[in-house]
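During the second year of the project, the team shifted from modelling isolated chains to modelling whole assemblies. The rationale, set out in the original proposal, was that interfaces cannot be judged from single-chain predictions alone. As a representative example for this report, we include one of the complexes processed in the last quarter. Its constituent sequences, exactly as entered into the pipeline, are reproduced here:
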Amino acid sequence: MKVYMDHAATTPVDSRVVEAMEPYFSDKYGNPSSLYTAGLEAREAVEDARGRVARLLNGAPEGIIFTSGGTESNNLALKGVAFANRKKGRHIITTKIEHHAVLEPCEWLAKQGFEITYLPVDEHGLVKPESLEEALRDDTILVSIMHANNEIGTIEPIEELAGIVKDHGAYFHTDAVQTYGKIPVDVQKMNVDLLSLSSHKIYGPKGVGALYVRRGVRMDPLLHGGGHEFRKRSGTENVPGIVGLGKAAEIAEKEMDRDAKKLTRLRDRLIKGALAIENSRLNGHPEKRLPNNANFVFLFVEGESLILELDFYGIAANTGSACSSKTLEPSHVLSAIGLKPEETHGSLRLTLGRQNTKEEVDYVLEVLPKVVGRLRQISPFKTDFVMEE
Amino acid sequence: MYSKTLIDHFRNPRNMGRMENPDAVGKGGNPVCGDVMYIYLKIKDNRIEDIKFETFGCAAAIGTTSMITEMAKGKTLEEAMKITKKDVENAVGGLPPIKRHCSNLSADVLRKAIEKYLAEQKAKSGKKKGK
Ligand SMILES: Cc1ncc(COP(=O)(O)O)c(C=O)c1O
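Output from the structure prediction step:
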């Protein structure tokens, strides 16, 4: 059996999305900036997609800036706001559990003379509103806190956090790459000024996304040129990609509730079954978590071995183990929720998607104890991590 | 990323498991870093008669330890001491550069086990002579 359970990494493109994109490669290939029919046709498709993307977050279409994906949206939000407001202040607040597409721009901004505060999280990965209140300063210009974490699935109380910032006058940005199209996202209710989203996490094509920017937010562009996307992001639009994102948003609007209910049931079945394995733990919040996210630690085994073993059984999964990363650093998210390094090595993330079935979950639950058991047989550690000489 | 040989040793590890009453044990690595190897030896007439291993770590760590047990079995202690990291790496058909340092510790662990054994033997015979 082939089972794909890494939907937080990426999703297959929905066939309805492929169909919607198809005409915009070789048939309706006009440049949306051209004034003749072919251009107008492409412009109409882009604006139609903008409307759909905006509707799914309850924002104005003029607030949607199409980008090359979540990474660019985060970079544009952070660097764009930082540079446009640097006379007002140079302090930015974010958290220790953000995606690298937020953390790395922050590190870079720190080198340009900005000061960054990284808020801690509790053992479930939640940001404490008090810690945000304490961190806010007169020169704070931007707060960036993710809507849901990509590794452990914890959903942050954005409405409450953004409420605190609103009275203060700093802008609030949220990385909603893991939530947009999966759970309700409403920029009015959440009180956010900027929001990042990505197409390939919601059954759309890779390499396209958007940044929502509330009217009146001062933000410099990263890309200067022909003045596309309301002068915020120059470059001829990725028309087929944008059309694909628009279609993915349209489908999500209709099917999100049903999908979320189904995924929550499958997720809970998966969590219950996996925790029956000895010396296992769930990472993230027991309830405030994405409908499709399960993240475990299996003590005394290492995650990269686990992923390779599961792959032999046709199961695609993910780990936060250092040994699987390019830098050999353990997951900063698992460290931030208080896991010891030796524990982070044994982490496994399974993220469900629209096409997963109960049978697939049961297959994973049949394979998982075998795989963990085999690796524990090889491991010198059976009950603790002590290396007595 | 990994060679066929390494994957074979990862999936079908040779000489895997704990040894009852070994003549020498070598331990290396650190659970914090994510790679730990134990090598157990049975030694007779200066020769590795039997060898077993346990490893906590990635496929490279498990595969290279399995490989060194095959390379060392039946060798004299002097021959086994000469096995280098590079020999193990070559025997498994190469390793990704990032894995060369942290996961390929088995040659050090084997040497440590043998050195410990030789030191113990020396201490014992020293005592005997002393009597
Ligand atoms: C929370 C989060 N932010 C940003 C990104 C980056 O998005 P993209 O792959 O579209 O650049 C990802 C995807 O890995 C993510 O999970």
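Chain B touches chain A through 27 residues (CB under 8 Å). The mean pLDDT of chain B is 93.
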